[in-house]
Amino acid sequence: MVSVLSEAKNVSNHTSTIKKIYMEDFFTYILKCSDGSYYVGHTDDIVKRFAEHQDKKYAGYTARRLPVELVFLQSFSSRDEAFIMEKRIQGWTRKKKEALIEKNWNELQKLAKKIFT
Fold first, then answer.
1. How many CA atoms lie within 13 A of 68 on its CB side?
2. Which residue of 6, 57, 106, 116 lies most exposed, with the fewest beta carbons within 10 A?
3. Could you give the angle at which helices 105-112 and 94-101 cross, rounded to 10 degrees?
4. Cβ distance 41 to 29 under 8 Å?
């Protein structure tokens, strides 16, 4: 894991920074959709992928929930790592995703603990 950019409100505001710092990296990202739901994905070009979501290039989940906002971005050195993290986050509860987005590590740790009854 190289870095977290969770304060990004709009990829276009960060395009030059992202291109300079992360040209060789892969990303796991979370988008907040207009209905308040979250979409988790991975890519090797976050600027292009965000534009594709906004431009309805994918007929799936986000196309019906525009506009979307980038709320979490983490870079990895391999596609496999980014994909594994995407799948991990997709299995999380909304509260746990929000703790990650907010960088609330204490809450994230609490939510990570399994409770057996």
1. 28
2. 116
3. 150
4. yes
Average pLDDT over residues 16-43: 82
Query: Is the CB of residue 11 less than 8 Å from the CB of residue 86?
Result: no
Place of tokens 């890519």: 43
DSSP state of 12: G
Q: Report the distance separating Cα 85 and Cα 101, nearest Å.
A: 14
Separation of CA 75 from chain center: 10
CA atoms within 13 A on the CB side of 1: 10
Query: What is the CATH number that goes with domain 3-91?
Result: 3.40.1440
pTM: 0.78
Q: What is the mean pLDDT of residues 13-24?
A: 53
